[in-house]
Write a structure and sequence with these properties.
The protein is α+β, with helices and mostly antiparallel strands and 349 residues long. The protein has helices at residues 43-53, 124-135, 147-154, 175-185, 190-213, 216-222, 225-247, 255-292, 301-307, 314-348, and strands spanning 2-7, 15-16, 73-78, 87-92, 98-101, 120-123. The protein has a six-stranded antiparallel beta sheet.
């Protein structure tokens, strides 16, 4: 039960509710006539504020979101099943995404030694879930039934044309959606009614698809019937090929070719390893040969002959120089050949 609606602005007229029927009427004076309007008494504004405090989505047309009223914090006191005293709910346009509860009614056990007490701020979505759980008994999955829709049936808004039809809360509400929520309020099998809602949704989707198929743009996007049949045929052929491969344990069609290639690479790796050992051995021998390939020292020959009393004539000396030059050429050529072989082996290794 609602108890009191107030605000932190002194211009707001506090509204107190009592048990039974509560009426809001306009004041009349002795000068009032039958033609004087009874509007602007605050009836619609009262309902709008109640919805705002009970988790309604805040839009630009919401009363509390008006620029002149954004700074006002509205407060609703109401009975709550788990509390002995009324629960205070506060919400303002400046922080429309949150509500402040006077007591923590979430029932969350965070492992604290003492239960949490005092005011708690919650997102509007969580506050709506608490209303569904504690005021309407909606727990678990309840697709097709919404706490906000149930509240709209109980507190109808003239701004949404909620009084035009008894089975709808707004003019464009679908009949299946309204029916499942009404069935829950009346204690009927709302899940059975929700299945009808799902069927109606599928029927509407099918009708939209049928309408889209008749649109020529659909054919350009999806393709013609002949194109689709051709794609289906190709897909079925591919499926059959895959099934045959699975049946023959040849999931990868190129397995044999890959296996032969792997064997070839393996043989080549072994061959290269053997060639590497041979080349390394040859390289060591060539490096040793280069070290051994040097010119022979012959400067001691002539002094030796002189000590022996043998005089070498000019002809002998010329022949000796020729032999010495030839020997130098042989040594130089051999060293060049060996160095080329070493460079080739090094590059190959």
């Amino acid at each position: 039960m609602l108890r009191r609606l107030s605000a932190d602005d002194g211009r707001f007229k506090e509204v107190s509710f009592v048990e039974g029927l509560n009426l809001i009427v306009a004041d009349t004076t002795d000068a009032s006539s039958d033609t004087d309007s009874r509007n602007s008494a605050g009836k619609s504004s009262l309902i709008e504020l109640l919805h705002f405090l009970l988790g309604a989505r805040a839009t630009n047309t919401t009363l509390a979101m008006n620029k002149a009223l954004r700074h006002i914090t509205f407060d609703l006191e109401m009975d709550w099943p788990s509390l002995r005293s009324p629960l205070s709910v506060r919400r303002s346009g400046q922080r429309a995404g949150f509500v402040t509860l006077g007591e923590d009614v979430t029932g969350i056990d965070d492992g604290a030694m003492f239960p949490r007490t005092g005011a708690v701020e919650l997102p509007v979505e969580q506050w709506t879930q608490l209303i569904e759980r504690d005021l309407f008994g909606l727990r678990g999955d309840h697709q097709g039934v919404s706490g906000r829709v149930l509240l709209s049936f109980l507190a109808r808004r003239i701004s949404s044309h909620g009084f035009n039809e008894p089975t709808r809360t707004f003019s464009r509400q679908s009949a299946p959606e309204a029916a499942s929520n009404l069935a829950y309020l009346l204690g009927l099998d709302w899940q059975l009614v929700d299945e009808y809602r799902q069927l109606a949704a599928r029927k509407a989707t099918r009708a939209q698809l049928k309408k889209a198929v008749d649109d020529p743009v659909w054919g350009r996007i999806v393709g013609s019937t002949a194109d689709l049949r051709g794609q289906i045929t190709l897909a079925e052929a591919q499926v059959e090929r895959l099934r045959a491969q699975v049946a023959a344990f040849q999931v990868v069609p190129e397995y044999e070719r890959l296996k032969d290639r792997a064997d070839e690479v393996s043989r080549r790796i072994k061959q290269l390893a053997q060639e590497d050992v041979i080349d390394q051995h040859n390289l060591e021998e060539l490096q040793a040969a280069v070290m051994e390939t040097t010119d022979v020292e012959v400067d001691y020959l002539e002094p030796v002959y002189r000590e022996l009393g043998v005089v070498l004539n000019d002809q002998v000396r010329r022949r000796f120089e020729d032999v010495k030059t030839f020997h130098h050429s042989v040594v130089r050529n051999r060293r060049g050949f060996l160095e080329e072989e070493i460079a080739e082996l090094t590059e190959r290794l």
